[in-house]
Amino acid sequence: MLICRTLFTAGRRSLSRRRTIPITHLRLYSASVNPPNASASTSSSIDDDIKRLVSTTDIHDICTHYANLVAKLKQAGKLGSLPTRQILNETQLYRILWLLARSGRPPDVQMLYDILLDMPLVLGLTLTEDTHTAILRGLIYRGEIEVTRRWLERMPKLPGHITPTLKHYHMFLKALPDMDVCTLRLMRSIVKNMRPVGCKPTYETYEIIWLNRWALYDRGDKVIRPHAAAVLFDDMERDGLSYNPSFAEVLFQEYNKRGLPLYAEDARNMYEARFLAYDTSASSAYGQMDIKLMRTAQSKGIRSAILLFKSWKPHRKPSPEQIRTLLRHSRQLADLRLVEQEFDVKCNVIHWSHLIVNNTRAGQLREALSIYDESKLAGIIPDTYMTSPLIHALCQSSFAPAQEASVNKALEIYRDLCSAIPSEENDTDHSAGPEQEIYSTLLRGLATVKYPYKYIDVAKEIMNDMAARGITQDDSNTASSIIALHMRNASNTEEALDVYRRLKSPLDAKGYTVVLNVFCKLRFETTIQIPSLKGYFEIVKDMRLAGFNTTVEVYTILLHRLSSTATEVQQNDKFPDAPSVIEALTRTLRRVHDLLSLDASLSPDAVLWNQMISTYQRLGCFADAYRIWEMMYISGQFNDSSVSVILDACAFSGAYSIAKRIIERLMRDNYRFNTHNWSTWLECLCRLGKLDEAIQVLCGEIEGSPQGVTLNAEHVKLVYKFAKSENREGEVLHQIREKSPDLWATLPAHIQGLI
After folding, report:
1. Which domains does the chain have, with CATH numbers?
2. CA nearest 248: which of 206, 218, 216?
3. Which of 125, 302, 326, 528 is the most exposed place for a label (fewest CB within 10 A)?
4. Cα-flanking dihedrals φ and ψ of residue 352, to 5°?
5. pLDDT per residue over 239-265, tens digit each?
């Protein structure tokens, strides 16, 4: 992006700027020695600019008033009529910095540099860590991951030479899950670059990463397997961190509170095995030989680990804990059988559970179920640690329908557990019987099957069992699942809302989100259902009254549903009365847009506006989509995805001239397009019948060709696909070979061989 480039270039331009204010004016400026009238006039004019500057939130006005203020201060310096008081206080300045950073436009980033240079010389303020905190908060609010990262890494070289602190980095890391793209790889990369700028990561740093990863899981991402956490352990070793029991507990608890007790134990044991080996003071807690056994079994196989144990303790049988160590990473039933055979022992439920959980976390559900069936034949009595990962894997969904066969198998395993540990026995050993998470998982699975009416009686059975075992039903997960199940069995919207009103009290923020998602997707008598805005925003209102903030997700759920419904109608040629449905969807969308504009509790971000553009485009309302883009462009509230979304809208609306104008404006702004932007632009040109122009862009022949981005084989394949429909594929390859040899050299041999 241009902002990234600006961070490198703007500072150099500012540093070379000639200064006219004497360096002696650090905070309070000397009294005027000019005639009274001239002094009064200058002071009054400066006061007016200060008042306008600190009272506006408009970025254009801020830039204008600040430039005027600095110019007048310089002129006053020449006349000797500088004010005798502080120009701006820190609170006022930090607000200005935050607004400029939040905007993120190239001239506004340039203004940030100018202000940093002006602070000691013109404004009489000292650059501190808090100065950068204000800027970083603005960049983070805008969702600029790379720009924020670059700012942190450049801080020691910026005016003031401030070293970023843990507070700065932790603030950035904590905000990442709410930005466009957050991955474990990205977070690790950010932390890796902390030390070179003088900021050493701590256990709190890695705890934030771990909690962030779970935040992504809670929003529908894949669960992080314990073995994947090993990359964090590598980073922690590189940073010289030793064993920390608090971090071990965090590893354990994040799995355990989500009903993954075996994963929890595995993660903690892996951490202890890695770090206790280097901590002699704690090595007694986890024997060195046990660590060696576990590592041998993992790297060389179970047979080698058995031989190691026999050489260590000849003629001795391993204890249950040592068998557990041997099978820690095993997935094969043959490993367990070999241990039983070699030592003449019988493995217990914990040992069998290791095989099951290792297979489920590796995605081998069929193998895990097979081992479970074998365990029953071996006389193993199941417990919650054995059954929980199986039930979770069978019912797992992120609002996606669960398969009836999978849910039925989960119910079979649940009933095995209930039979093994009846409710009257559960009082003395609650941990062995079904726990809260198992019930919540089952109910969630029942709520998402295609025909939920089949499972109403089963849900009642589960609820009765919960009551018999003394397990509360007043938690959000259980309540949201029950509401979802009954809503999907309702015959109309009002009946669905009645269910919600009766059962809503335990819902938390996540529970409300689940209910909103289900309500949006309700269908009665198999017909397409446009969500009732009255009912939807009744739930949103209750969410606010319960003390939970409205998030952009409240609107994106609704927009996604309108968009998918429009696609369903448009792709069905036999759909009755499609035009009237599209018209109704359009009216609903515009009403949602109005409600969003009036929602004072929410500041829409680029992600939400992008979805709004996409939904308008799906409904054929390109003019509305383009107006949103114009608003985003003028305010600077757009990101890379916004550019791709509007270009895609132009392509499907036949708006070549508008797409061209968008590209030209961004090029004039020195906007730095990413690889996906160029893919979208090339596809836009091809869809609009501009194949020749697409080829020229691909070969770098015209203005509007990529700068700072390397096109690759995927871009060639995209243009080639459209050229093939015009029987011009050979021409495309010939031109690339002749005009862009570097790009040609990156193409696979089978593509080059086509000509």
Report:
1. 1-164 (no CATH), 549-672 (1.25.40), 676-755 (no CATH)
2. 206
3. 528
4. -65, -35
5. 888 878 778 878 888 887 777 777 887
